[in-house]
Amino acid sequence: MIVSGLPLLALRQAEREQFVTRRSGRTSEVPVRDRAQQAAIVLSQIDDVAEQIAVVRAERERAEPSALVTAAGPGLGDPLVARKLVPASSENELLVSDEGRITFRVTDDLVGLRAKAVAYAEEDTPKGNPRFTDPIARIDEIALATITDLSLGEIDNDIADEERLWVEIWTRGGARLSPNEHRTIDAAVAQFAALTNDGPEAIPVFRGPERDVHVVLASGAALKALPLLLPDAAEVHLAPTVFPIVLAEAQDAAGELADVDPPPEDAIVVAVHDSGVDSTHPYVSPILLGAESVVPGVLGSADTDGHGTQMAGVAAYSGLADGIAGGLVHADAWLVAMRLLETAADAGGDPERGVMWAERTVESVDVAESVAGDRPVVHNLSIGADNPTVGKTDRTSWSVAADVLAWNGGRGRLLVVAGGNAETITDPADYPYINLGPLHLQQPGQAWNVLTVGGYTAQELLTAEDTATGYPAPLAAAGQLSPHSRTAVVANNPIKPDIVMEAGNTAPGGGLENPDAQGLSILTLRSTAGGSGSLLRRTYKTSPAAAAASNALAQVAAMHPSLSPATWRALLVHTARWPDAAVAQFPDQRDLLRSFGYGVPRVELAMASDSNRPVMTYEGSLKPSQRTGSKSDRRADFIEIPFPEEELHAIGEADVELAVTLSYFAEPTDNLTRRAYAGGRLRWDLQGPTETADGFRARINRVVHEQGVAPGAGSYPWRIPADTRSRGTLQHDHTSVPAADIAGSRLLAVYPVLGWWEDAREGWDKDLPYSVVVSVDLGEVDLDVHTLVAAALLPVTVPIRHSR
Prior knowledge:
Elements: H1 35-59, E1 67-72, H2 79-85, E2 93-98, E3 101-106, H3 111-122, H4 133-136, E4 141-144, H5 147-150, E5 164-172, H6 179-197, E6 205-207, E7 211-219, H7 220-229, E8 233-238, H8 244-253, E9 259-261, E10 269-274, E11 288-293, H9 307-316, H10 320-326, E12 328-330, E13 334-339, H11 357-372, E14 377-381, H12 397-407, E15 414-418, E16 451-456, H13 464-469, E17 499-502, E18 522-525, E19 536-539, H14 542-559, H15 565-574, H16 580-585, H17 589-596, E20 615-622, E21 627-628, E22 631-632, E23 637-643, H18 645-650, E24 655-664, E25 681-686, H19 693-700, H20 702-705, H21 722-725, E26 730-738, E27 744-753, E28 768-777, H22 785-792
Parallel strand pairs: 9-12, 10-13, 10-14, 11-13, 14-15, 15-16, 16-17
Antiparallel strand pairs: 1-3, 1-4, 2-3, 5-7, 5-8, 6-7, 18-19, 20-28, 21-22, 23-27, 24-26, 24-28, 25-27
Helix pairs in contact: 1-3, 8-10, 9-14, 11-12, 14-15
């Protein structure tokens, strides 16, 4: 029988007795060293470090002798050994001990440590052993501390200069410091943070018992210099899941306004064709070139809906949350705001009245470019409509208009279109099946020439606010398809979407989708028309994904202003890859392609080459339907890719990544009786590892084959089948192969495919401009292949030999 309600029982203390532990306090054995040699090595290293400290002090005009030093050797990380090297009674301070390394703050110019090394060399203990054998005999190296030392390996010394990390900087602190000392250290940390953030207004600080902990956003370049710049630092660690959106929303709630750094005067423009924009918004007005309306009878572009202002925030600012948290937001592009959508009030109470979206979009693009003047423009359409023609034809008046706009008479124009949103998912068991059907991409997202953007998510962590609110677990894992994103139909049409960008995650539960969790959404701008007082809000779905892609294209175009729109588009998509989680989620590549397209682009890689990752571009044009009399006289371009031979053979079996992207704009037709939708089409192929140049040409060209040349064995093992990737105007592929397999010059062919120009006399002599991007990435191999390729890179057009 169980009895409840009984009283607690109090235990009594037993006898107390004297105690000495039986556990041994021994450390690892001291290495056997040649006394004179070891002393000479250690003293030499101490003198080198002391000299470096003196140089740094002189360069930075610092009077204090404080510096951070690391010693490495067997057993040095043992606390008992570390305290022998840096005793608590010394002027120096032990900061970090980790296995065979210790880091300590030196305030005596290494005088104390040098004295120990001298005593080790010259003095004996009463037992006849060298003094300070433990720890001096353990030392292999003494050097200035690095960021890897201070972070216990969390941050690598080889971190890229441009990488940005939220870190905790642990400094001297606690009650033993005076208020003035705290202020001095705080000021030093703020000065360090300003190297990355242009001087944030406030840095969160936790005052611990012996350390002060500061949360700072720092670049890789700043982190590598931190041990020299901040000698008061004790440790540096990656901040535990710092969400910039949390800091930015806190700044907004406190009414703290960040400064706006506008783009250069001639920078590219993003035209947002949407519900208008809040032109008085303090983060919009400094970068807004103009705002117009193409809605009949509506003057001005005030954004009463708010959607356009949200898209403007994502399209103009790639680092909005970081910038607001740091007090300075950098605009990547100028803005032009076009009112394309109408409200119920605009439409006389009938927002569903007939609208010719094709005509309105053409007008909106034309007006936007007149406002932008001579600046290049990326047009963003984070809008769309259901596609009633799926299964019958892949063209609508709106998609044809979009393709005509992007064709732009062969000159090309950048239009970025959202792929559309899936039905709401409230039951986790429905994901990702609802995304895969029955809804398909919204029009005009099926247009060939536009950059169609779907959604994935990298956001799978809830913030403290989300947890307190009671949000369930996030639905998608990082790298998977966003629960908001639609997918394309499986059909013989171009790969769509072309790429995916962040579209947010959800946390379904209680019959709700729960898409607006702080950690699962995207920070952007709020229209002030509602009078909420807040300048920021959260957004999600494929609308901000398309706006982010517009921003990325603007960055690429700004970095390469002399290149064409087709090349800008190719450079961005060239960096796209599928996350591992996406490949695992969709093992059938057909589902992967219709969900992710070519993958997630990495805009930083589209900006430039690296020494071990040369990126090569070629801009040319073909006449796909050129004729001589009544006979076709088509040509193919052969572009030479001069990969270095000896150097790549030298690294032989090391895997390298080879990537190729072809980008062009096709002239569409709205005549369904034509044999094809595109006037002229192109494909590419690359000379394979065992093919000669002639064998490659014979493999793809019947003219050469009929001249008696044997065709080659084939190209590389590309990730996407050639017939699949070659359907559209944006064709990208990559593969991983041994370096030796690409050694030596290779030919890349761009050749024509029949289109409706073949049926129309006016198409027989039209040029089809195109752009090609090729790169080889050596990964961890440190070889300056960029210089080698640059010295040999002479793109040539090799004509096909004809039988007359």
